[in-house]
From TrEMBL:
InterPro entries: Cd-R_transporter. This is Cadmium resistance transporter. Keywords: Membrane, Transmembrane, Transmembrane helix. The chain crosses the membrane at residues 6-26, 47-67, 156-178, 190-208.
Length: 218
């Protein structure tokens, strides 16, 4: 497996594992579209919030330029810990699931006035979506920082591109899931159980690929 294949696999795994919850909140937002709150507010707000998370996480990449790979690889234990904590939760996040389900029972009209991109960018409604994305992205930073810190510039570019493409996919799916509440409920209830294992796999790869285990077991 060459570096591109491995990076595509890692990028896809981390993109889906870290942005899946965005799908739930985006579905809620799309379900509340009305004459003053249109889909463009949701999409642009989501991308702005996600860009802020990426910007903060790039600190890890800059640190990787001056700190040894073995030491940086120890940060891989962070996504392992995040995944383990999610796995060991005894209670489902039923509040989110029920919120998604209830918010989709009565789809609202989508006849909204057209706005220019700049008007949407300046609209406070856009930043309401961004605020939710950022508030929900604490774990994302904890995963992106070690991953970025142990990545070369080409690998980083591929991973970030996949993450942005995945956000676009969630926006598309979430918009249509407002008309299919049963599907949204199934996804929210069951698919999220897989992602703790994905996060632990990502963390383990960071530790192993950088030889950081040798610091613990010389």
């Amino acid at each position: 497996m060459n570096w591109l294949e491995g990076t595509l696999m890692t990028g896809t795994a981390v993109a889906f594992a870290t942005t899946f919850d965005d799908n739930l909140y985006l579905t809620i937002f799309f379900g509340k579209v009305n004459r003053t709150f249109c889909p463009r507010h949701v999409v642009i707000g989501e991308y702005l919030g996600f860009t802020a998370l990426i910007g903060v996480s790039l600190v890890g990449f800059l640190g990787g330029l001056v700190i040894s790979e073995q030491l940086l690889g120890l940060l891989g234990f962070l996504p392992i810990a995040i995944g383990a904590s999610q796995l060991l939760k005894h209670e489902e996040d039923d509040d989110v699931v029920h919120t998604v389900s209830s918010s989709l029972k009565t789809p609202q009209a989508r006849r909204t006035p057209q706005e220019s991109f700049w008007a949407t960018l300046k609209d406070p409604q856009t930043y309401r979506v961004s605020a939710v994305t950022i508030a929900n992205g604490g774990n994302n930073i904890g995963i992106y920082v070690p991953l970025f810190a142990t990545s070369t510039l080409p690998r980083l570019s591929v991973i970030v591109s996949i993450c942005y493409a995945t956000i676009g996919l969630w926006c598309f799916l979430s918009y249509h899931l407002t008309r299919q509440p049963a599907i949204a409920f199934v996804i929210a209830r069951y698919a999220r159980k897989v992602f703790p294992f994905v996060l632990m796999w990502i963390g383990l790869r960071i530790v192993m690929d950088n030889g950081s285990y040798q610091l613990l077991f010389p």
